[in-house]
Amino acid sequence: MTTGTAEAGARGAADTRTRLLDTALRLFTEHGVEGTSLQMIADALGVTKAAVYYHFKAKDEITEAVTEPALRELDAIVTEASKQRRRGAQIDHLLAGFIDLVVRHRALVALFSSDPGVARAVEKSIHGSEDFKQGLLGLLCGDNPDTAAMVTAHVALAGLAMAGGSPAMAALDDETLREALLEVGRRLLGRPRHRTA
Amino acid sequence: MTTGTAEAGARGAADTRTRLLDTALRLFTEHGVEGTSLQMIADALGVTKAAVYYHFKAKDEITEAVTEPALRELDAIVTEASKQRRRGAQIDHLLAGFIDLVVRHRALVALFSSDPGVARAVEKSIHGSEDFKQGLLGLLCGDNPDTAAMVTAHVALAGLAMAGGSPAMAALDDETLREALLEVGRRLLGRPRHRTA
User: Fold this and answer.
1) Do A160 and B159 touch (CB under 8 A)?
2) How many CB atoms lie within 10 A of CB A42?
3) Fold type of domain A1-57
4) pTM
């Protein structure tokens, strides 16, 4: 096998993995994680179950792989936001990043908020650990938050995610939804009105 | 059988039904709807499975019965709110009623937002129909709402419910949680600050 062929093979495998995850997310959305089998994923892709097994040994691994990129992005947003000097800049960075993530991963967010299989996959990943959630909330409400700040942060994160993933918003393009969520999020967190460039 | 005995029997059956639903909600919270069997409910109550069958023929009926009182209350809140003359009063009535409901039924709300079994039961009930949801949203955002109003209403309803049902709020007493949610909700919907009596 020449290097060229090996590279083409690796690229082919990467493509199949991407297609597999896209297909899995679509089937999870239609049938739930519980209601989706490896066989259904194979059928939808037009490949054998063995070909699916080549990439993932169990459905759990697929569920984790589906959520993994978004969680890694969220991790990066929290890290980047925490590097900002001023509290206001931290909140602005986190809010804009979180909303952008929700909008781009709408299907996954909708699934996360309605399917315990996905919620469990997130809990099991290092990104979904309690520490990570605390980091996200801590950045939003600061050290030693009072009740009002804690409640506000929870309403903001859950509300923005659920609204963004709602089928009622499916007709909105990404930019419109992003601007609307940002406006609401900034009002909620007491940040000055966002000015678009 | 005397009337007195028949009444006592009816009261006993009503008590068993209430205990059964309380126990079912607790088990649903611990194991999910899928992970809870009629046998588990019977065991937890210390009765036979036949005794459970006397009240409910299937788990679906229990799930519906668990959610029913809260949905009936929500229905009454929407009806009452829609009778208010001014828009502001409609929103105030709906917001206060919705938050009070979320706080009093915290365990159920947490379950609803994490378990598709409960979400399906609500969808199937007449209260959970699309019309009902539209009524709730319609009251919050008025006729022909723009994107901003729709997004705000979704963030408010989902965010307040998810935050109220969050385990992070378990330590707060009802009154403290109610006041904090009301404050956030009013800011979100552009209502003047709430004054406690």
Assistant:
1) yes
2) 18
3) Arc Repressor Mutant, subunit A (1.10.10)
4) 0.85
